[in-house]
Amino acid sequence: MKRPVMLIAILPLLASGCESSTTLIYASLNSSVSSTKQGQECQTPDPVGLGRKLDLNGGEAMRLGGITRVSTIEYQVVKYLGVGKECVVAYGD
């Protein structure tokens, strides 16, 4: 009887550490640009704050995907208790 109560008490604490979100940074109003290519720049979060930061303008993701004209750029975060990854994803031609 005591174990199920402890499990129910611990479960909300573990679930509160989950973070998953996608934020639209840029969307083109030009309908002639299709989303045929995808470029992605990812990095694991740095808890200390030192080191390389993501290019939120999407320039690096565009270069990695070989994209010359952008249709959308997204910022994606998937973390569990601070461990996971952050990505900038660019779609375009």
What is the tally of beta strands? 4
Radius of gyration, whole Å: 18 Å
Amino-to-carboxy terminus distance = 60 Å
Which strands sit side by side, in order, in the main sheet?
1-3-4-2
Annotation field: number of helices: 2
Amount of beta strand: 35-45%
The helicity comes to 10-25%
Structural class by secondary-structure content: alpha+beta
The biggest beta sheet is recorded as: 4 strands, antiparallel
Order of helices and strands: HEEHEE
User: Spans of 5+ residues with little confidence (pLDDT < 50)?
Assistant: none
Form type: elongated
Residue-averaged pLDDT, rounded?
A: 82
Your description of this structure?
With 93 residues, the protein is an alpha+beta fold. It has helices at residues 2-15, 59-65, and strands spanning 18-27, 37-43, 70-80, 83-92. It has a four-stranded antiparallel β-sheet. β3 (70-80) and β4 (83-92) form a beta hairpin. The protein is elongated, with a radius of gyration of 18 Å. It starts with a helix and ends with a strand.
